[in-house]
């Protein structure tokens, strides 16, 4: 990943988030507070604006800018979580010759450090975990991502607002898992261009 | 559970109004009435306005939440003078009412809600 | 304990302001800063404004209280980036901060306050 | 007690509350929220206004009016407590030939039913209990009342806001005990007139 691909990644992620803003909110309605679409839309609008005004010329600068904007602008739990993810990626990316899968893995670890979620707690990490695994084996595809997103549906939420409704969270896709799905679809697209 | 609603009693106007906004977000279909303060500016609770909130709530079964002990005493008096079925919970005001609202909205039964509230019961 | 203060983080502007009024009543000499919402009208919490409140608080030792889990995550990030000594309590927001404020005002030590807060700890 | 003495009782109680409003608030500062003076002042102002406009012509009417005004106008814990006290007195007073000590005792019982306080919890009942006892033995004097009020000083609060400061409540007179002291001083004065 270089800075150009990284910028393209964010542009594509932003497009997807804005296009699916209402759907993200809809997912956050039965098991949350109906704001995930708004949260991600606001956060990504700021990321894009910052890219345009600050014109980052290294991957490090880009990741830094993404981190601070998501952290301070998203407003929901996903703010500190995505913020931590990009902060973790920023740290890992400084190492020489580190493979991209290890960078994403460092992002995942930061989400877990911040949110204390385990696999199958019905959170965004239920997408990040299989994505990291697939990346390590050079097998990440859109289908892998979609399946990971879908796999959150039968789970009972153990973390975040959805955990308050307990059993009733079963049968719904986790909104953060879905937005993470968009993030990784955008990554594949940017890399393919 | 359309006939089960929530009432929130706080010593402070803003706390009650703020909780209303917080739980409306997750429980738009639940009938919620809040009372905060003696007036917008004066801190305290009064029996009258609690009774009013109970009557204004569309639901006949009410889950009631309060902040400090004196609010509970007024709530108990209002409960005794009302025909509605009112249960007062000794749980954290914000956290308890949020959980109850989210569960009511999700269609969970009163018994199951009580089970969950028991886990966060505190001496107040 | 003039060097120990309180910060309150809520998802909602009014809840934070209301708690401020409630605890100012019993703890006029304690340094208290509150943050509520992303703005007066938008519900949520943000890392920036929490860090700002931490810096604005005159005290170097802070007892921190929050409403829901996502506020805690932002609070933890702000704590990590601040030089102040900050302790985050998993206790009811209104009730916990009220008790802490009353005890700080009465000159009770941080250790003894923690003892009392432990009794109302909840999973949040 | 008849209605004239009862009205005089309330007038004298009101005078004392207004005169000592600041002191009541001062007592409520180290162990409370500094509003007991305001609360009692507001409540009694309404009681006196209601007496003037409604001109109760029986003790029953008077007690009813005191109850509703204290209940709805005081605003603090003392509102439902004094309100319950007068409600209890109202109920007892309906019985034929009931001695005044039994009426006051019924007030005390209602305070306890409402507030769940026991003797020595450092509340207003630490004045009501010795007052009832002295009344039963026909020995109520100003000195008995003052001593009861003073006796709350060394106690550790177990009920009400003062209980939040635990040990730190020791060494201060309880504000509700002090206002109850004023109530009984006013009663003795009204009866003596
Ligand atoms: N502790 C956690 N660990 C990992 N992910 C979490 C955690 N809490 C919440 N999430 C994710 O955040 C998403 C909700 O984000 P959002 O709606 O923006 O925040 P909020 O719940 O504060 O309104 C959830 O769908 C879930 O994927
Ligand atoms: N549970 C209780 N039982 C009996 N008396 C109580 C109880 N709680 C509080 N009180 C009395 O009420 C007084 C405080 O009244 P006030 O200051 O008007 O109310 P608040 O504490 O709500 O501000 C206390 O001094 C005490 O005498
Ligand atoms: Mg949400
Ligand atoms: Mg939210
Ligand atoms: Mg008081
Ligand atoms: Mg008060």
TrEMBL record, chains A, D:
<dbReference type="InterPro" id="IPR004007">
    <property type="entry name" value="DhaL_dom"/>
</dbReference>
<dbReference type="InterPro" id="IPR050861">
    <property type="entry name" value="Dihydroxyacetone_Kinase"/>
</dbReference>
<keyword id="KW-0418">Kinase</keyword>
<dbReference type="Pfam" id="PF02734">
    <property type="entry name" value="Dak2"/>
</dbReference>
<feature type="domain" description="DhaL">
    <location>
        <begin position="4"/>
        <end position="189"/>
    </location>
</feature>
<dbReference type="GO" id="GO:0047324">
    <property type="term" value="F:phosphoenolpyruvate-glycerone phosphotransferase activity"/>
</dbReference>
<comment type="pathway">
    <text>Polyol metabolism; glycerol degradation.</text>
</comment>
<comment type="function">
    <text>ADP-binding subunit of the dihydroxyacetone kinase, which is responsible for the phosphoenolpyruvate (PEP)-dependent phosphorylation of dihydroxyacetone. DhaL-ADP is converted to DhaL-ATP via a phosphoryl group transfer from DhaM and transmits it to dihydroxyacetone binds to DhaK.</text>
</comment>
<keyword id="KW-0319">Glycerol metabolism</keyword>
<protein>
    <recommendedName>
        <fullName>phosphoenolpyruvate--glycerone phosphotransferase</fullName>
        <ecNumber>2.7.1.121</ecNumber>
    </recommendedName>
</protein>
<dbReference type="GO" id="GO:0004371">
    <property type="term" value="F:glycerone kinase activity"/>
</dbReference>
<dbReference type="InterPro" id="IPR036117">
    <property type="entry name" value="DhaL_dom_sf"/>
</dbReference>
<dbReference type="GO" id="GO:0019563">
    <property type="term" value="P:glycerol catabolic process"/>
</dbReference>
<keyword id="KW-0808">Transferase</keyword>
<dbReference type="InterPro" id="IPR012737">
    <property type="entry name" value="DhaK_L_YcgS"/>
</dbReference>
<dbReference type="GO" id="GO:0005829">
    <property type="term" value="C:cytosol"/>
</dbReference>
<comment type="subunit">
    <text>Homodimer. The dihydroxyacetone kinase complex is composed of a homodimer of DhaM, a homodimer of DhaK and the subunit DhaL.</text>
</comment>
From TrEMBL, chains B, C:
<keyword id="KW-0418">Kinase</keyword>
<dbReference type="GO" id="GO:0047324">
    <property type="term" value="F:phosphoenolpyruvate-glycerone phosphotransferase activity"/>
</dbReference>
<protein>
    <recommendedName>
        <fullName>phosphoenolpyruvate--glycerone phosphotransferase</fullName>
        <ecNumber>2.7.1.121</ecNumber>
    </recommendedName>
</protein>
<dbReference type="InterPro" id="IPR004701">
    <property type="entry name" value="PTS_EIIA_man-typ"/>
</dbReference>
<dbReference type="Pfam" id="PF03610">
    <property type="entry name" value="EIIA-man"/>
</dbReference>
<comment type="function">
    <text>Component of the dihydroxyacetone kinase complex, which is responsible for the phosphoenolpyruvate (PEP)-dependent phosphorylation of dihydroxyacetone. DhaM serves as the phosphoryl donor. Is phosphorylated by phosphoenolpyruvate in an EI- and HPr-dependent reaction, and a phosphorelay system on histidine residues finally leads to phosphoryl transfer to DhaL and dihydroxyacetone.</text>
</comment>
<dbReference type="GO" id="GO:0016020">
    <property type="term" value="C:membrane"/>
</dbReference>
<dbReference type="InterPro" id="IPR012844">
    <property type="entry name" value="DhaM_N"/>
</dbReference>
<dbReference type="InterPro" id="IPR036662">
    <property type="entry name" value="PTS_EIIA_man-typ_sf"/>
</dbReference>
<keyword id="KW-0808">Transferase</keyword>
<feature type="domain" description="PTS EIIA type-4">
    <location>
        <begin position="3"/>
        <end position="124"/>
    </location>
</feature>
<dbReference type="GO" id="GO:0009401">
    <property type="term" value="P:phosphoenolpyruvate-dependent sugar phosphotransferase system"/>
</dbReference>
<dbReference type="GO" id="GO:0019563">
    <property type="term" value="P:glycerol catabolic process"/>
</dbReference>
<dbReference type="InterPro" id="IPR039643">
    <property type="entry name" value="DhaM"/>
</dbReference>
<comment type="subunit">
    <text>Homodimer. The dihydroxyacetone kinase complex is composed of a homodimer of DhaM, a homodimer of DhaK and the subunit DhaL.</text>
</comment>
């Amino acid at each position: 990943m270089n800075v150009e691909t990284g910028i393209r990644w964010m542009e594509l992620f932003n497009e997807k988030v804005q296009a699916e803003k209402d759907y993200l909110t809809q997912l956050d309605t039965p098991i949350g507070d109906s704001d995930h679409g708004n949260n991600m839309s606001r956060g990504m609008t700021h990321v894009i604006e910052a890219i345009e005004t600050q014109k980052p010329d290294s991957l490090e600068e880009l990741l830094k800018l993404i981190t601070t904007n998501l952290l301070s602008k998203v407003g929901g739990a996903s703010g500190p979580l995505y913020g931590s993810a990009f902060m973790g990626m920023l740290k890992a990316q400084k190492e020489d010759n580190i493979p991209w899968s290890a960078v994403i893995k460092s992002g995942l670890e930061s989400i877990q450090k911040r949110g204390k979620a385990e696999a199958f707690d019905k959170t965004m990490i239920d997408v990040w975990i299989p994505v990291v695994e697939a990346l390590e084996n050079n097998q990440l595809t859109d289908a892998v991502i979609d399946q990971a997103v879908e796999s959150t549906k039968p789970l009972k939420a153990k973390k975040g607002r959805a955990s308050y409704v307990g059993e009733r969270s079963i049968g719904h896709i986790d909104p953060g898992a879905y937005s993470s799905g968009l993030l990784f679809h955008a990554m594949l697209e940017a890399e393919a261009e | 559970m359309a006939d089960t609603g929530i009432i929130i009693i706080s010593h402070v106007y803003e706390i009650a109004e703020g909780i209303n906004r917080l739980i409306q977000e997750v429980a738009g279909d639940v009938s919620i009435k809040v009372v905060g303060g003696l007036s917008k500016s004066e801190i305290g609770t009064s029996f009258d306005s609690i009774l009013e909130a109970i009557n204004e709530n569309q639901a006949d079964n009410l889950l009631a939440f309060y902040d400090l002990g004196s609010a509970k005493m007024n709530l108990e008096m209002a409960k005794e003078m009302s025909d509605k079925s009112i249960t007062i919970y000794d749980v954290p005001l914000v956290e308890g009412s949020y959980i109850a609202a989210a569960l009511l909205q999700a269609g969970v039964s009163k018994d199951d809600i009580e089970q969950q509230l028991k886990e966060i019961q505190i001496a107040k």
